[in-house]
Structure to design on (1017 residues):
């Protein structure tokens, strides 16, 4: 570091060291605050350390003034920073945008430090920004950081110095002025309270987002455009506007624009437009870039109105499915996943094949969500795809697949669900029982009865047995009721507890079918020594007597 | 996170001035013990004591702005007349600041208000005020002092002229880039607008800047016009109390309001005679062309949206009678309303479009007020007229003494709105003289005004403009 040869007092030297120290700390904080988010302890500590350093200086002086040169910064004519590199050069960073002096004042708040460092961390070289450092400092309007800029930096041009106004011009003006007989018009304006209130309202209105106005302008212009080039250009602007809406989570205006577009396409202009005229918009809204923005918005803290989101989704087509399936795997918040699952259930209704690809995703939760979506759609067309995934290695996927199959209510699924009664996972077996119950056919009933009557059924856990009886209760015919009463009345000597659990489940199911003929049997069961049987029987009685 | 105390003070600062004005206005009509006065005093005390429980309050006048504890007070449009009232009272008596040191009682404020009322009619107002204020301990009044800035007046004017030159030069650069269909970078434009905003919020600098708008360069009219419209728009925005960041957005939108003209053939733009119907058909395309240009090169983002909308709307007119014709329900944006006023004013005072002969600024205001009242937003137009004054800065005037001069600054006292400061440039015989500043409120020994404006002239017609007299 270059220093003047003049002797300086030790106090002055200490002061210089303090300033050098602050500059070093700025550079250090710049790196740390670039790498860590504001809630990280490293970031917080960097900000605090720098704040402390400044305060040490402000104990001596109320203001730190740094003169900026191309490669150096000076304080009190002493060089406190020197760097000839082109990269990561603090002096050059300020100098290149015309800053010649920076003054930092006592009272500097931690937030000001953080905002200042954030500006220093902007990559003005690579980011296509419409701001330079001066504009950013200006916009932030720091209370305790001021700067002086060289205005000549912006342009060399000056309004040409005018030649002195010739005497004859002045004389001519003077003469005309004396000749002029017409008096100047008199205006008198009175600004009243109504004017003030009106302007105050206008200022408030100015604060509202303006994207809807842009949409109006674009469609006004579209209405008046004849040439295909103009229409194509406006289509590009509409696409950009939609992107802006999605970026800001404004699904209301996005769907508003798409509604206007639909009206336009079906209106008088339809003769002039071809299928490809607005393909740029359709491709964009159904493409990856938009999906990525959608992901960002959904994962941000911005609140998304489900109705507006749903209206927007109505404009998308099945080509969006791969991108949406992808972001479905990225979404962290359950509420957002639900949004997207509902969206895909709508969009993919006629494109099961595209949705079903999700069942083969390597992430179990994407496969599970794909099954949930197919379950929401629940058409016969989903069955072959779901069946393929019945043997998925993850039980959560298998369970969702079984549920989805059950949701179809289609007898075709009986044979497939039947096999799931033997699934190693009891959640899947429970789901299978429930799914079978959803298929309202004689075969399904027989399948459930067969399983319940099988030799090892009584060995199952109570909850699983209950699920089977509950499923069977979907059929409320005499045969089923007789079977349940018979089961309730049948006592076994061996493995009594397990058999009593089955009787308890039958009691529970009788409550569901509301068979009054079962009352005596249930009353008797209420006196059983088996707790489950007593509890389920009295529950059923309560239901029957209600 | 900002200090919540600071935020409260910031929010209440404007209220303090508003309440003070209400107390003083009421006290000028009624006795100090009148119920209406006492009620207003209680409201003021309540407001002040909340803050005084935490810190002392200094209400200071610097230039045309009030500062409470060194923070500039931003007034709302609704409170504008009360601000102006207190401003005039401070100036009339020569008050620089009032320091409220401790919790106030009714008596303290009664003494202050009575003292201000008494001082207002005294020959030595500030001395009278001080004498009266000896009765209270926790209020200190200081006299207004002329604030000397770090930079000289000469340097300040040079900087303003440089900002104006930069704006014209940058506008020219952006227009050429847009014409050749290359990507527009707004960084420099934003920066120059920032520096102009800084001048605009300082009353003295604003006057100089408005004076610069009298420049009508016909060779490069569009660039100068764009800069003039931008300055006039920001000045009006400042008048209605828009914050500086919004002023910058407005300035940028105004600067590019005519960007679409880069695609209009030069022979139409610079046609010396009146435009034909065909010419008008071409000309009427420029608002949309400007919007399209901005959207094409800047995309759709928060900063481009304001510019694109203003470019589209600035000729539509408040009654939608202009162009482009719109078919849907359409409310013009505030920026567009402001820009159309500034645009119309600058165009009428230039020998362009509306008439091939330029009008004097006074005539222009009259035309706008009387003939275009439906097309322009009337409350904003009234604000604009009040801002530029009956004789706008830069206006070439013949005085009743037959002297010739240029209006240098308006008089902000509504009573003397037609009595600006004038730079005399010719004597009563029409001989050029060393420029001298005179105040048209000056009176002779008999109490009559020394000079008054007799009539106005189109300065550009004689190649005379204020910029020549700037440093």
């Amino acid at each position: 570091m270059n220093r003047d040869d003049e002797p300086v007092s030790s106090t002055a030297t200490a002061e210089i060291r303090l300033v050098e120290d602050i500059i070093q700390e700025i550079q250090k904080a710049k790196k740390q605050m670039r790498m860590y988010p504001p809630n990280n302890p490293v970031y917080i500590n960097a900000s605090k350390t720098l704040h402390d350093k400044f305060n040490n200086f402000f104990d001596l002086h109320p203001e730190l003034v740094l003169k900026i040169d191309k490669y150096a910064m000076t304080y009190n004519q002493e060089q406190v920073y020197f760097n000839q590199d082109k990269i990561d050069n603090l002096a050059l960073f300020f100098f290149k945008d015309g800053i010649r002096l920076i003054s930092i004042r006592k009272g500097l708040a931690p937030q000001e430090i953080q905002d200042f460092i954030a500006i220093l961390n902007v990559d003005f070289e690579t980011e296509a920004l419409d701001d330079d450092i001066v504009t950013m400092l200006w916009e932030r309007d720091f209370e305790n950081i001021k700067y002086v800029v060289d205005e000549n930096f912006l342009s060399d041009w000056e309004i040409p110095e005018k030649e002195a106004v010739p005497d004859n011009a002045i004389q001519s003006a003077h003469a005309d002025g004396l000749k002029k007989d017409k008096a100047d018009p008199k205006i008198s304006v009175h600004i009243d309270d109504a004017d003030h209130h009106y302007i105050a309202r206008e200022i408030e209105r100015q604060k509202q987002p303006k994207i809807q106005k842009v949409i109006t302008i674009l469609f006004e212009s579209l209405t008046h455009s004849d040439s295909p080039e103009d229409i194509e250009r406006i289509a590009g602007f509409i696409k950009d506007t939609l992107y802006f809406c999605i970026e800001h989570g404004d699904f209301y205006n996005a769907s508003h624009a798409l509604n206007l577009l639909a009206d336009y396409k079906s209106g008088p202009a339809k003769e002039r437009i071809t299928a490809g005229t607005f393909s740029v918009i359709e491709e964009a809204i159904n493409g990856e870039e938009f999906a990525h923005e959608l992901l960002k918005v959904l994962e941000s803290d911005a609140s998304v109105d489900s109705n507006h989101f749903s209206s927007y989704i109505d404009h998308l087509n099945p080509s969006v499915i791969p991108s949406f399936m992808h972001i479905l795997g990225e979404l962290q918040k359950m509420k957002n996943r639900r949004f997207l699952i509902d969206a895909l259930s709508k969009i993919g209704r006629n494109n099961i094949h595209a949705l079903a690809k999700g069942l083969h995703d390597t992430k179990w939760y994407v496969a599970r969500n794909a099954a949930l979506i197919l379950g929401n759609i629940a058409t016969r067309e989903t069955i072959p795809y779901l069946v393929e995934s019945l043997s998925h290695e993850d039980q959560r996927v298998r369970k969702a697949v079984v549920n989805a199959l059950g949701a179809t209510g289609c007898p075709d699924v009986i044979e497939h669900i039947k096999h799931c009664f033997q699934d190693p996972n009891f959640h899947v077996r429970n789901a299978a029982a429930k799914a079978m119950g959803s298929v309202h056919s004689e075969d399904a009933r027989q399948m459930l009865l067969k399983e319940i009557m099988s030799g090892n059924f009584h060995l199952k856990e109570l909850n699983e047995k209950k699920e089977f009886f509950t499923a069977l209760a979907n059929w409320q015919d005499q045969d089923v009721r007789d079977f349940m009463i018979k089961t309730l009345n049948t006592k076994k000597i061996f493995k009594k507890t397990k058999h009593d659990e089955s009787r308890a489940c039958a009691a529970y199911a009788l409550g569901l079918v509301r068979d009054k003929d079962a009352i005596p049997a249930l009353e008797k069961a209420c006196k059983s020594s088996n707790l489950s049987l007593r509890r389920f029987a009295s529950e059923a009685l309560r239901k029957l007597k209600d | 996170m900002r200090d919540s105390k600071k935020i409260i003070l910031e929010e209440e600062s404007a209220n303090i001035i508003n309440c003070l004005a209400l107390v003083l206005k009421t006290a000028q009509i009624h006795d100090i013990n009148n119920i209406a006065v006492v009620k207003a005093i209680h409201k003021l005390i309540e407001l002040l004591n909340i803050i005084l429980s935490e810190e002392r309050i200094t209400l200071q006048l610097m230039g045309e702005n009030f500062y409470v504890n060194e923070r500039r007070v931003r007034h709302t449009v609704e409170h504008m007349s009360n601000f102006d009232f207190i401003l005039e009272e401070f100036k009339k008596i020569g008050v620089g600041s009032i320091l409220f040191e401790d919790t106030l009682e009714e008596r303290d404020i009664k003494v202050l208000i009575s003292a201000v009322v008494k001082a207002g009619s005294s020959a030595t107002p500030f001395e009278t005020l001080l004498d009266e204020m000896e009765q209270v301990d926790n209020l200190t009044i200081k006299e207004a002092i002329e604030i000397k800035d770090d930079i000289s007046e000469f340097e300040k004017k040079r900087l303003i002229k440089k900002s104006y030159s930069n704006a014209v030069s940058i506008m020219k650069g952006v227009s050429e880039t847009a014409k050749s269909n290359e990507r527009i970078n707004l960084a420099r434009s934003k920066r120059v607008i920032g520096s102009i905003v800084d001048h605009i919020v300082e009353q003295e600098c604003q006057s100089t800047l408005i004076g610069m708008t009298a420049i009508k360069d016909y060779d490069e009219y569009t660039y100068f016009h764009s800069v003039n419209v931008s300055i006039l728009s920001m000045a009006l925005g400042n008048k209605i109390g828009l914050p500086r960041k919004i002023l910058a957005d407005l300035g940028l939108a105004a600067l590019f309001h005519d960007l679409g003209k880069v695609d209009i053939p030069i022979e139409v733009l610079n046609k010396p005679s009146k435009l034909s119907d065909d010419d008008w058909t071409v000309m009427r395309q420029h608002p949309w062309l400007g919007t399209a240009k901005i959207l094409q090169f800047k995309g759709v983002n928060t900063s481009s949206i304001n510019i694109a909308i203003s470019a589209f709307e600035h000729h539509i007119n408040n009654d939608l009678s202009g162009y482009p014709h719109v078919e849907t329900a359409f409310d013009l944006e505030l920026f567009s309303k402001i820009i159309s006023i500034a645009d119309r004013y600058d165009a009428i005072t230039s020998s362009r479009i509306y008439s091939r002969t330029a009008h004097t600024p006074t005539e222009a205001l009259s035309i706008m007020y009387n003939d275009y009242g439906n097309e322009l937003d009337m409350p904003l137009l009234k604000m604009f007229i009040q801002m530029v004054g009956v004789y706008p800065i830069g206006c070439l005037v013949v005085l009743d003494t037959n002297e010739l001069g240029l209006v240098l600054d308006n008089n902000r006292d509504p009573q003397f709105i037609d009595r600006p400061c004038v730079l005399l440039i010719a004597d009563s015989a029409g001989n050029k003289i060393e420029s001298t500043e005179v105040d048209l409120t000056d009176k002779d020994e008999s109490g009559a005004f020394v000079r008054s404006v007799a009539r106005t002239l189109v300065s550009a017609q004689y190649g005379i403009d204020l910029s020549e007299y700037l440093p």
Summary: Chain A has four domains: 10-153, 207-350, 363-439, 458-546. Confidence is low (pLDDT under 50) at residues 1-6 of chain A. The beta strands of chain A are 63-68, 72-75, 78-82, 99-105, 145-149.
